[in-house]
Structures are given as C-alpha cells and as structure tokens.
Design a protein that fits this description.
The protein contains five helices and four strands; from the N terminus they run H-H-E-E-H-E-E-H-H. A four-stranded mixed β-sheet has the order 1-4-2-3.
Amino acid sequence: MNLILVKKLEKELIARGAEVYLTRDEDKDLSTTTVNRKRNDLYNRALYINKIEPNMYISIHLNSTTSSTWKGLQIFYTSKNEENKAIATTITDYLKENIANVREIKKDNTYYMYKFINSPGVLIEAGFISNPNDNYLLRQEEYQNKLTNLIANAIEIYFQSS
C-alpha cells in the first residue's frame, strides 16, 4: 500500500511540474547486506536522499499496532532541519481542513533514517492498517487519489508560502 500511495503522489507531483525521485519504485528494499537488513535499507535510503539533495523529502508509511483502536493519519518531523516543523504543520493543517481523522503533528528525533537526512522533509503515517476503518479507506482507490491529491496541494502551499 505504501508503494501504491507513493506512485500516485509521484504522478500527481510530476503533473504539477515537480521533479520527483523515489527511493524505490518496486517492492524491494535497498539493503546491501543480510545482517541488520532493515537498518541497512533505511541507511541506504538516507544516503540516496542526501545524494540527490531534494528541496523536500516525503516519506510515506502505514502505521500498525496491536490495538485496533488507534487510528488516523499523522505527520512526524525531526528537529534536524528547521523547515521540518513548518512542512509538517502546513501539510497537517491542510489535511485537517479536507479529510477527517488527522492527528496532531509530532516531533520525534528517534527514527533511525531521519537522523541522517540533511534535506527538509517529513514522515507521513497515512493511517493504521491495524484499524479496520483506516485499513478499509487505504484500500479504496478513491481515497488513495484524494489523499495523494491533498498531500500534493499541501506541498504546493508550502512552497508558495516559503
């Protein structure tokens, strides 16, 4: 589902004139080792992002917990770059105006990959796949299109105001 959302967002942003780079465009990771595979994948993604030096990175994920009661989309940012909080706020505020179930932004400096990324950007947890309603919505093409269109709108708003 992450890749589906990412490819829809990529298509939307390119249609608006953006230059878009993906850390992956198929369902495989960037790990070059079998030891600490996940950590190596994340580190290689960060290296790639730093190599291309984008104006902004957007990292899209789906949340999951052992409880099915947790729900909603949430934007996370780190304090590594001072623009991160403004990007998170812009995207969150815009999404809150246009769809339900958007949680407050959250600063989190503990995520491994984001410690290494120099460019500004945010992590978007698009919803909880462990929540039946979020899971249902995330599987609907109409919702996927709406969500990626709204994220693209929010990115445009951020760049217009900065």
